[in-house]
Amino acid sequence: MLFPIALTAKSEINLRPHTGIFDMSPLATLLREIRVGLGLSQVNFASALSLKGPYISEVETGKRYAPLLENIAPNLENLGMTGTQVKRLYTAERMSPRQVKIPPTASQEVFICAATLQEYMDWLEQDDFIKLTAFLHSLASKRSQQEAPNN
Prior knowledge:
The structure is a single chain. The chain has 151 residues and is mainly alpha-helical. The protein has helices at 26-38, 42-48, 55-60, 69-76, 83-94, 108-120, 126-147; strands at 5-7, 13-15. The protein folds into 2 domains: 5-94, Orthogonal Bundle (434 Repressor (Amino-terminal Domain)), CATH 1.10.260.40; 108-147. Helices cover 54% and strands 4% of the residues. It has a two-stranded antiparallel sheet. Strand 1 (5-7) and strand 2 form a beta hairpin. Helix 1 runs antiparallel to helix 5. The longest helix has 22 residues, at 126-147. This is Helix-turn-helix transcriptional regulator.
């Protein structure tokens, strides 16, 4: 596969080392995979989704965010997408936030961590983000096991 994501049977997104030309969000990557799989040009794919001609090109070159699925959902059926394919798109959209919302009741450390990540985002390498993601999953898994009632 040429793109840095793959969806497992659990509908989770697994990041892989990037092998494409441009870095894209998981949603943009999956939309490109669908477009190529359908054999559509960027302009024809944009038209099928009721988007302006250059929109998909700008998404695929990292100049724009991928469209919100709520805006293109009515057009997905026109492309003959199955329920499973649409579910994959919604999973990818969840993994492609445009901004992170921190609850106002979060601890100071949460705000500091988010600010630090934003400050150093341009300095971090792709592999650093893969490691950070794996570390966060590991922490969450440990915490959920600690909180699970002992049987």
